[in-house]
């Protein structure tokens, strides 16, 4: 059940980040990948600034995951991937 929750979390985070960054037509799997990798980036950033439990399903974890996904989309745009 935990894996399913993480996949849903990644999809939601990826969709929100793509919506904020005005990215259209990326599809299910790209939203999932962006959400999961972005969540890892956001967790790493939260850990660097010692924000607290980022790896859990909390509001702060969700916010850092979205921030991480936005950073990932920005980096991919800069690299033109």
From TrEMBL:
Topology in membrane: Multi-pass membrane protein
Cell location: Cell membrane
Record GO cellular component, one term: plasma membrane
Segments traversing the membrane: 6-21, 28-45, 57-76
A Pfam entry, by short name: Transgly_assoc
Primary residence: membrane
Keywords carried by this UniProt record: Cell membrane, Membrane, Transmembrane, Transmembrane helix
Origin superkingdom: Bacteria
Family, similarity comment: Belongs to the UPF0410 family.
PANTHER family in alphabetical order: UPF0410 PROTEIN YMGE
UniProt protein name: GlsB/YeaQ/YmgE family stress response membrane protein
Source species of the chain: Hujiaoplasma nucleasis
């Amino acid at each position: 059940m935990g894996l399913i929750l993480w996949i849903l979390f990644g999809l939601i985070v990826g969709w929100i980040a793509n919506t904020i960054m005005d990215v259209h037509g990326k599809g299910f799997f790209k939203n999932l990948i962006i959400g999961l990798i972005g969540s890892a980036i956001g967790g790493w950033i939260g850990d660097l600034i010692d924000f607290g439990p980022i790896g859990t399903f909390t509001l702060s974890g969700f916010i850092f995951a979205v921030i991480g996904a936005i950073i990932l989309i920005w980096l991919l745009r800069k690299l033109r991937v």
